Amino acid sequence: MSKTYYDPSDLRKFGKITEWGEELGNKFFEYYGKVFEEGALSAREKSLIALAVAHTEQCPYCIDAYTKDGLQRGVTKEEMMEAIHVGAAIKSGATLVHGVQMMNKVNKLDG
Amino acid sequence: MTKLKTQSLKKRQSDLANTNKQLEILSNGIFQNGELPTFKNKIAETNQFPLKAKALEILQINVGYMCNQVCEHCHVDAGPDRKEIMTKDTMKQILDVVKTTGAHTLDLTGGAPEMNPNFRWFVEEASKIGIKDFIVRSNLTIIRANKKYYDLPEFFKKHNIHVVSSMPHWTRGKTDKQRGEGVFDMSIKALQELNAVGYGMPDSELKLDLVYNPSGAFLPGDQASMEKDFKKALMEDFGIQFHNLFAITNLPISRFLDYLIASENYEDYMYSLVEAYNPMAVENVMCTNTLSVSWDGYLFDCDFNQMLDLPVNSKSKHISEYKTELLEGRNIVISQHCYGCTAGAGSSCQGTVA
């Protein structure tokens, strides 16, 4: 067994998940491919969304994959960093907005 | 002024200046231990081995390796220190062949082809022959490098030259990173001058195309989308227009191979190329309709094979002994660098092929 939980070369093996569950695996990859096609949003915009989500999900495979994908699409490092800040802002906002729940509870119990 | 990005492998006396060393790297390691299939085995899977040359359509002439730039990823290992320059005698031999072949495209490359002292003479003579598409691959900065080149846009126009120019990105940072400090600003100025004489305008017959090749260890994105982004940015920021964008994959040879190894990206890059292999692209790879002529007149299947010293597999090895019947149908010489032309939508000097 590997001594680390993540191995960058495992990303290349992602497709192999179909070997232990062909139908669902194939459906997933078909869906995945369709999602990233050019649509109402451009493939470039989708790539930046994916990069931001990759960070909020803290998925190292996805970060590698969508950094490279962005470079291939001509996305600049400034654009990438801004996208990540959008993810970070939502993550921190999601934490902080729960502060209202805390305030509600304090007011109810000790107001 | 531009600042040179680096030095040629030859000047640095790098191991990789020896082409045998490059071919050894491309054949060993992951391709020797079976981790990845060799290009020969890969194309054999779809019965496409051996690759055969079809009728000649494009004659690509490398008039010399001298260049005013030293780009990070140059597959020619070109630079100011390279003294390999085509002579007028070799040019005359080429003109004799151009008159007799059915090639519809003549493609001049380098180095900076304009730095060959007989460049203008050659263009004038070749344009008299009436080739349908006469390309000069200009690095743009040469147009602004010295007063003696300032009239190149007018010269190109006079001879109805199709100008194809490298432009790695629409931003200064990414362009200068690959091609040297100051290259972006000078390239923009040169493009504006080409536009001013009519090059690249929507209805103009003066063709101006740009070549995009990635600035690092990744493959080019979709050519049509990149073209849209380039057109929008260059128009909005600088009022520049051009016709088509050719997205070209960096082949793992010469200075790009050196970069891949030094940055520890070589194996991942080869994986990317092999994973993106597209048998449809093999059908139209440029080596099947192109012949590359080196500065000293020798014949190669493509410019990349020329830089790897892999001569054509034919009894006609030099332009002075050019014989259509000996070259047509020849087996193309291949190695693992060929994966660069068959990845994704494929890659050639004219952009994607599939």
TrEMBL record, chain A:
SUPFAM superfamilies to which the protein is assigned, alphabetical: AhpD-like (SSF69118)
Residues covered by the Carboxymuconolactone decarboxylase-like domain: 23-101
Source taxon at top rank: Bacteria
UniProt-listed Gene3D superfamilies: AhpD-like
Pfam families (alphabetical): CMD
NCBIfam families: ahpD_dom, perox_w_seleSAM
Protein name as it appears in the record: Alkyl hydroperoxide reductase AhpD
Organism encoding this protein: Winogradskyella haliclonae
TrEMBL record, chain B:
Protein name: Radical SAM/Cys-rich domain protein
Cofactor: [4Fe-4S] cluster
Record lineage: Bacteria, Pseudomonadati, Bacteroidota, Flavobacteriia, Flavobacteriales
Domain Arsenosugar biosynthesis radical SAM protein ArsS-like C-terminal span(s) in chain numbering: 219-352
InterPro entries found in the cross-reference section: Aldolase_TIM (IPR013785), ArsS-like_C (IPR024521), rSAM (IPR007197), rSAM_ArsS-like (IPR026351), rSAM_sf (IPR058240)
UniProt domain Radical SAM core: residue ranges: 61-199
Origin superkingdom: Bacteria
Organism: Winogradskyella haliclonae
UniProt keyword annotations, A-Z: Iron, Iron-sulfur, Metal-binding, S-adenosyl-L-methionine
